[in-house]
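Give me the fold.
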Amino acid sequence: MVEQVELNRLFWHSRRGMLELDVLLVPFVQEVYATLNQVDRDLYVRLLTCEDQDMFGWFMERSESQDPELQRMVRMILDRVQPK
């Protein structure tokens, strides 16, 4: 189970100051993060260490992360708002 302190910390780290990222990351951490397995939780935390400009390109699908695991997390977040 995910502790509230961890969720609060991730909520603030997910707020990037770039609206395009905020509208994807903040709801994801609020609604999905607690349901992830530990591997995916760790991957989300690693995603938050990336540069905003890199993430912007990935989420706008202008580029892809060279790390396939990070790209998988990006896809997971995008699929939540763009169901196929």
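The first helix runs from residue 4 to 14.
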